[in-house]
Amino acid sequence: MRSFLLAITVFVMSCSSKKEETPVAKVNVAVSKKETVKEQFIDTVFYAVQIGAYKDFNVEFSSDIIKISENGLNHYVLGSLKTKSEADRFLEILIDLGVKDAFVVKLSNHKIVEKFYEL
């Protein structure tokens, strides 16, 4: 028992004895935060053109196409326009390029809040 107490005492004293500290160089590291396109639209209202809505098609695009999942469908929209008139002009361009059945939508907090089927 005495040797056990002696060993503990030596251990505690060696841990508590003052050790010489070695200077450490400080290095500043810049950390960048990766943001996704979807995050920039949170808490904003904007207009876009819906180019499709599918039940069994679930793809994440690396381009500016935004996927919004609602009511069992994946809605794909394109654009981030401030006004409906800008969205209408964009819709006309897409129709001229051959995109069928596209229409303007209003989005808020990354959800479709209104659909405009006619120009």
What does this structure look like?
The structure is a single chain. The chain has helices spanning 2-16, 84-96, and strands at 45-54, 65-70, 73-81, 103-108, 111-116. It has one domain: Alpha-Beta Plaits, CATH 3.30.70. It contains 2 helices and 5 strands. It is of the alpha+beta class. Keywords: Cell cycle, Cell division. This is Cell division protein FtsN.
Which features would summarize this protein structure in a list?
119 residues, alpha+beta, Alpha-Beta Plaits, five-stranded antiparallel β-sheet, 24% helix, globular, disordered N terminus, cell division, Cell division protein FtsN
For this structure, the CATH topology is Alpha-Beta Plaits
**Mean pLDDT score, rounded?**
76
CATH class: Alpha Beta
Architecture per CATH nomenclature, i.e. the level-2 architecture:
2-Layer Sandwich
Sheet with the most strands: spatial strand order: 2-3-1-4-5
How many domain units?
1
Task: Label the structural class.
Answer: alpha+beta
Q: Count the helices. How many? A: 2
| First-to-last CA distance | 93 Å
